[in-house]
Amino acid sequence: MGKPTTYAELQTELLVWLDDDESNVDVAACIGYAEDRFNRILDMPEMEATTTLTAAASTALPNDFWQVRSLHIEADPRVELEPVSLSVLRGRYSAQTTGQPQVYAIVGQNLIFGPAPDSAYSVELVYKASITPLSDAEPSNFLLTKYCDLYVVASLMMAEARGWNDPRASSLKPWWDEIMDEVRMAGIKYRAGSTPIRLRSPVRWGG
Length: 207
Prior knowledge:
Helices cover 36% and strands 22% of the residues. It has 6 helices and 10 strands, in the order ααβββββαβββββααα. It has helices at 7-18, 27-41, 86-92, 142-146, 148-161, 172-192; strands at 48-55, 59-60, 65-73, 79-80, 82-83, 98-99, 103-107, 110-114, 116-117, 121-129. A hairpin with a 5-residue loop joins β3 (65-73) and β4. α5 runs antiparallel to α6 (172-192). The longest helix is centred in the last third of the chain and has 21 residues, at 172-192.
């Protein structure tokens, strides 16, 4: 079998690596734990998404929201909104103050604007989105398509944590580190295009 391109093929590939069967190893759980880790540590161009929301007293964030990249009111010129804590927002604007929003805070899964919108403002949110988890209903995603080896090694590391014992397990961490370096560099090149990447001189403290 070639490299896995679907959820089912990935599970089959993992069972080959583990030299085991589903009665002893829950590969689906290992894949799920790997995806949880991907969302925490990966920051890839393909994970960026854009959506348009209507600013209200409390505006729900997208279900796949992970982190704000930028948030602005769609106007001419557009108005960039400043991220602040809820306490700062409440300190600047009373509950009775309304107007065009200038700042925002995130509370749970909602955006809170300050001042409270005095009309229906259209805001564009650019954000880091979580990776679509693999399932029978969603058999593939961009990460499996582009970096199936990352899925394999991360899932095997989860299997090791769940009790898989194999002499090859000691090679997983160096393999993981090498792939992660390659993935990060691919993301940098994706954003920079053909522009040469210049390294800044190290900062020197003192005289």
